[in-house]
Amino acid sequence: MIYKKDSIRYRMPAEWEPHKATWLNWPHNPTDWPGKMSAVQKIYAELTQKLAAVEEVCILVNSEVHEMRARKYLKRAQADLANIHFHHVLTNRSWIRDYGPTFVMDSQTKRRLKRIIRFRFNGWARYPAHKQDDNVPLNLAHRLNLKMIPAKCKNMPLILEGGSIDVNGSGTLITTEECLLDQKIQPRNPGITKSELEKLFRKYLGITNVIWLDRGIEGDDTHGHVDDICRFVDRRTMVLAMEANSSDANALVLAENLERLKQVRLENGSRPAVITLPMPRPIYFKKWRLPASYANFYIANKIVLVPIFNDPADKKALGILADLFPCREVIGIHAVDLLLGLGGIHCITLQEPV
Length: 354
Hints:
four-stranded mixed sheet; globular
């Protein structure tokens, strides 16, 4: 649905717009990556080393011991520690994309000051240990001295995870019905309608146009996060994951999403350009399929970090994204061990705009 742009106060910048910093939460919960904590911390260190070369990196840690552990891995990776800052904040888990603050710009201030929209977090309506994660936006608003606006619907806190949406910075947002409209399996906001959500996106994020995809991929325990399937790479271009193997469980789901995108418009009435990304071969841990996808990349200042899986499609995916980001270096980060926690590179990173 497309709305007029009158009376828009807040704007959520796109991920490719200039960053002040990237936020991470150093791994500490062994249940996320059983038997792989050391390997995952090496991935974090490699990722942080790349990020710290192009922008400030802010890392949440639970304690002095936790910070010392992170510093040990970062020194080994030869990361620029002068550009890395630690914040002692208690958390349950490391998926900061989903519970961290949503930064917006306020058009009703002379310098378009930065604000934090506080959406609430309920552990993806699946995991009970989430109270500390839910408090992170409040904590960081105090630390950064930023005004915080609580997002509400019908006088109730509005629950929304960062990985469930993606924006083009000009008024269009993409998401999935499976995640945000579910009322039975993992409901975020029971009783809320599609129309009500669209009005709330307009109020808090400056969204005048919402594109609704159908479902997410197999193995995604968030129940349909869009950052595993479809992402904006500029204001009018998006990439969409596509499965070439017709017998794969993801093939029909992703084909349905492509058909939907053929019918949609952007906020200015134009059609988006849709570029397809391959999917890697299925990756399993015991009997469970893991949510492997090249769409779970992260756009930083001057670089794009892309999960790779020692798969024949790695090279093709990196090439497609390199063509789409000619002014940024596209870097593959081996992310199979990270997948054991049922998330990827985009899930563990969070941009703070300038």
